[in-house]
Amino acid sequence: MSLPRPDRILPSPNLRQSHFEVTFYTYGFRPGRSAHQALTVVRNTVMTGRAHWVVEADIRGYCDAIDHAWLLRMLALRIGDPWVLRLIRKWLQAGVLEDNQVTVAETGTPQGGPLSPVLANVYLHYVLDLWFTRVVQPRCRGRATLVRFADDFLALFERQEDAERFYRALPQRLGKFGLTLAAEKTQVLPFGRRHGRGDRAHRETFDFLGFRHHLSHDRHGRMAVVRLPSPKSRQKFLQATKQWLRAHQHAPVRLQREGLAAKLRGFYQYFALPQTTVALHRIHAQVHGQWYRSLQGRSQRGATWEALHRRPWFQLPTPRILHPTT
Fold first, then answer.
1. Ramachandran region of residue 164, left (φ > 0), alpha (ψ -120 to 50) or beta?
2. What is d(CA 159, CA 143) in angstroms, rounded to the nearest whole number?
3. Which residues lie below 8 Å from residue 236, measured CB to CB, with a gap of 6+?
4. CA distance 10 to 236
5. pTM of the model
6. From first to last of its 326 residues, what are the pLDDT tens digits of the chain?
């Protein structure tokens, strides 16, 4: 399948900042864009009634599945210098040295490579973003919105038939470019104002960018989208703090406090959205409990929780809302 001509799918080529930056739709790995902006778009789209159905999708092993031939053809649409394309091709095909043998992959971008995030954005820009805006949206009877952060994306639809049509077409579209969907993580969900009534236990939820999204109501009884740290995010964080404590079990307690405090502040910095206070206080208590149990295995054996809690060095930073408008 040939790609469309660049002058039919892209704005003016007279770009000063970069070849691709101003044409990207993604919120990931771009200056001035963030995951919180993507979360705000999802929330506002649902809250204003522009979406009642969500297509949740996951690309299986995305970075390892990027086809080099397709990627270079996409890059050639905006980069006219053959020497630059040749350097990128050599970088992609540099190979990996394992057991004195060099393995050259025909797909994927080097993990941790400085160009990998940009190239990953370029690939999905042509595979998904332009297809959605140029093909999917014009064929929808209602409003449709795509929110993408790197390879994590959601498609929000006003009408159910549009969501189901996109859900059926998505695997075929990605398959043309060597990508596959994780079937167990791809589904169409009712999620919007018209689905916010009734029993809370039967309302659908979905995970996006580390948050689990719920339909609930605010204190005035109006429908609201509540974002809480997902179970996977909480488990991953608590497992990391547990392993850190195990590795630093014999470090001075004040150094332990500094390390745990830094980890908690980092967790708060990302997850401290409105209505997350209770969940964040629970994380705070669990980390405190991990530290207490760790101290019980060393010189603080026998010290009660109450006794330790009165000591200044045992205090850890408590959460507060850091993104009130997100």
1. alpha
2. 8
3. none
4. 40
5. 0.86
6. 444 444 343 333 333 335 555 567 788 877 788 999 999 999 999 999 999 999 999 999 998 899 999 999 999 988 888 898 898 888 888 766 566 666 667 788 877 777 888 899 999 999 999 999 999 999 999 999 999 999 999 999 999 999 999 999 999 999 999 999 999 999 999 998 887 665 565 578 999 999 999 998 777 777 889 999 999 999 999 999 999 999 999 899 999 999 999 999 999 999 999 899 999 999 999 999 999 999 887 765 567 888 888 888 999 999 998 888 88
